[in-house]
Amino acid sequence: MSLMYDTTPEELIQINAHIQGFSDEQIRQFVTVYRSKRKDEQTILICCLLGLVLFAGIHRFLIGQIGMGILYFLTGGLCFIGTIVDAINHKQLTLDYNFKMMGETLSMMNMMRR
Amino acid sequence: MFNIGAPYFEACFWVAALIGLACTNPGQESHFSLCFFKRMGWSLCPGCGLGHSIAWLFHGNMLQSFKAHPLGLFALAVILHRIYILIKTRLHQFTIFKTNQCNQQLTAAASTQHL
Prior knowledge:
heterodimer, A: mainly alpha, B: mainly alpha, 5 helices, 68% helix, elongated
């Protein structure tokens, strides 16, 4: 658990809720897998702001939203309005994605146990 | 100021934007332009015309919509899908929260009964 030094408090709360009753080995497995899947807030923010100067939508591709990414890419970030909204909202965007990655990690661990 | 990760921010924004677009009349000339770059005179924005395009769609005029911007329909579809996903995620998180709350209340009640 000490490996998770770069998570946000909201992520930690959710992780603690998920790993109730996990053994040390399971916790280590979870942390290893999750750390490789999660995205950092700053990465998303920087990719989002790239859309103001270069091409937009990269952050949406990183979050796995291909449709929104294509839309942003082809329309200059919805005439830059989408880029600005995403820059304001980047923390919630990464949080939602990280929660989804937590779920994926748990289901992957379930499948590996069988 | 921007530290609030309000879960409902994005959904409210998209809904408000669509409602705002539905209420405008895209046929009339207006001085007001939301596009910051267009006001500065830079005409290279590949998304220009999307607002008018979606507004025409709300009025049911497909031809004008495609004239304003060819991706208007696609943009509307993607935004509607995004709103749907956002609401579904919040509902899902809310039901999980509520079931956790109920479970906690049940275990609290059960433990007080055992005492």
